[in-house]
Amino acid sequence: QVQLVESGGGLVQAGGSLRLSCAASGSIFSINAMGWYRQAPGKQRELVAVITSGGNTDYADSVKGRFTISRDNAKNTVYLQMNSLKPEDTAVYYCNADSIQVRLGVYVKTAWGQGTHVTVSS
User: How far is Cα 16 from Cα 61, in angstroms, rounded to an integer?
Assistant: First the structure.
């Protein structure tokens, strides 16, 4: 069983910064891609940023230049540094892990965290 636990959300004023963390636990040999998604009230969940095990990254256009995703493969942990936050960044942020090898030749397709709230006040 693979579990993802996020931390670091909270309330911040516009222009401020937050750092989200997500740790994967369980029987894990490796994780291909880890990423962050968000869902604002009344909106669909959207990709914020993703990083592969090799360090390749991709970002939503709305966060490019403000957010930075990173990961520690040894700790199965992914981070999201969020700077210059805007009220429109307010959402529940979810951690995701894709293609998780749990033992030789056995993979879990995807796993999600429970979400952490980020609120940016104007």
Answer: 19
